[in-house]
Amino acid sequence: MALKKSSGPKESSAALHQRRIALLGLGVENRALARFLHARQIPFAVCDARDPAIPVEGVQQWRIGDHYLDDLTDFDLLFRTPGLPTLDPRLCAARRCGVEVSSQTRLFLQLCPAPVIGITGTKGKGTTTALLHALLATDSTARVFSGGNIGRPPLEFLDELQPTDRVVLELSSFQLQDLDQSPHIAVVLSVTEDHLDYHADRAEYVAAKKPVCCYQTPGDILIVNRDCPTARAFVDESPAALWTFSTTAPSIPGAWLADGQLWACCPGTQPTAVCPAEDIPLRGRHNWSNVTAAVAGALAFGAPATHFAEAIRSFAGLPHRLECVAERDGVTYYNDSLATTVDATCAALRAFDTPLLLIVGGASKGADFSALGTAIAEANVRAVLLIGQEAPRIAAAVQQAGAGEIVHCCRDLAQALDTARHLAQTGDVVLLSPACASFDQFASYAERGDLFKRLVRTVGVV
Questions:
Q1: Which domain holds residue 54?
Q2: Is residue 7 part of a domain?
């Protein structure tokens, strides 16, 4: 299958020498961008609320303090860190004055010499990206590189890329908003709602994801989750060739589950059985959907399915995604710290038939917890251990759903785990699936999950 680069306006690194550039914020992505610019001797300024804890080379000008975003018109090109809302009034004011607002992701797509597949959705992006990389790696005819929201800024490997390579990018709504071109292949997983502390509302959140495909051409490929109405609506945004994936119905071309088998089919070919569904090592139907998405993406990128079954069977998943930590005395402990939305935690609950002791709560993302309360009341949950800022609102939702008697309010994660350990019986599962962000008590979801794993082992669960 012939592949092409993403279409859209192109930038050259040489042209950047003529621009007055500022990096807004020094997170992981803009630090990579700073290294990229410094290596090419391109001058730039840094604007941030705080002095950097780690030195940054090549900075020509610093603007530090609470007013670092005020009056940005002395620059003509701003690179926004993903955590800075693109609709911030000060950025909007700069745009009205003719200042261009960009991002590392946008610059990468402009400079990348290889075809790109971009993956977005509310949850499952990291798992799908990692598995898609593993599937593409079974094809020895092309190298594969992965980056984006999964953790590695793609500018870090830009200089290594050749036109024959394949690039897989996990793209969040934050990273998509500045784009004026789309990847050659776009994958849209289930889209619900998230980051309502950042986006104005659900509609703005969904709109922020549409650049993954809305700048595609008829020569591109769009792969959508046919089981999700919001994902299916992305078809209206793109003229690209349509592929789908599903856990409920045949998807041709694409990938799907039926009759206990994982199936795949390219345009104009007969469906092929990839492997039995029972060979998929990831827990939960939502992960089956991620597997079908990855298989469809790998096929669309031209990889043969010959060794897909082996790659799927050996895929261990990613940390903090329904990660089995340990078992002791018949009780199993799972770390699902990346479940920072109601939908993610509801999916985790559906992944278990065994009795659950659920540790839930954390920092607010503006979520409505009524669906979570109902899911807890309907699932086989023996106890709910509440932690963090959102504990009272989650408790109210569980109470409203008629399951208030199983709620235990805990001081912190350590107390919640200790309470769960004493309540658990043989055959139970203790599940950390917070449905909330981590920033009230932790620096990140990873720090929260890592502490959970350490605490599990500290109490003798090995």
A1: 14-102
A2: no
CA dist 156 and 460 (Å) reads: 41
For residue 392, cis peptide bond before it (omega within 30 degrees of 0): no
Q: Identify whether residues 153 and 43 lie together within a single domain.
A: no
3-class state of residue 105 by DSSP: helix
Same domain for 273 and 200? yes
d(CA 252, CA 262): 13
Nearest alpha carbon to residue 248 among 219, 221, 227? 227
Find residue 102's DSSP bridge partners.
Answer: 79
In angstroms, rounded to a whole number, what is the distance separating the alpha carbons of residues 196 and 177?
Answer: 15
Is the confidence at residue 204, as pLDDT, over 70? yes
Quick: pLDDT tens for 156-185. 999 999 999 999 999 999 999 889 999 999
User: pLDDT digits over 72-96, tens only?
Assistant: 999 999 999 998 988 899 999 999 9
* 9 within some domain: no
* pLDDT, tens digit, 9 for 90 and up, residues 372-419: 999 999 999 999 999 999 999 999 999 999 999 999 999 999 999 999
Q: 86 to each of 14, 102, 188, 294, 295, how far by Cα in Å?
A: 26, 9, 21, 30, 33
Q: Are residues 360 and 303 part of one domain?
A: no
Q: In CATH, what number is assigned to the domain containing residue 72?
A: 3.40.50.720
Tell me which H or E stretch contains 296.
helix 285-300
Tell me how far apart the terminal alpha carbons of the chain are, to the nearest angstrom: 48
**Separation between Cα atoms, residue 236 and residue 234, nearest integer Å:** 5
Sequence-distant (≥ 6) Cβ neighbours of residue 25 within 8 angstroms:
47, 48, 80, 81, 83, 84
Structure tokens at 321: 């995604």
Crossing angle of helices 391-400 and 370-378, in 10° steps, is: 60
CA distance 323 to 92: 41
Rounded distance between C-alpha atoms, residue 427 and residue 194, angstroms: 33
Q: Which pTM value belongs to this model?
A: 0.93
* Pair 137, 258 in one domain: yes
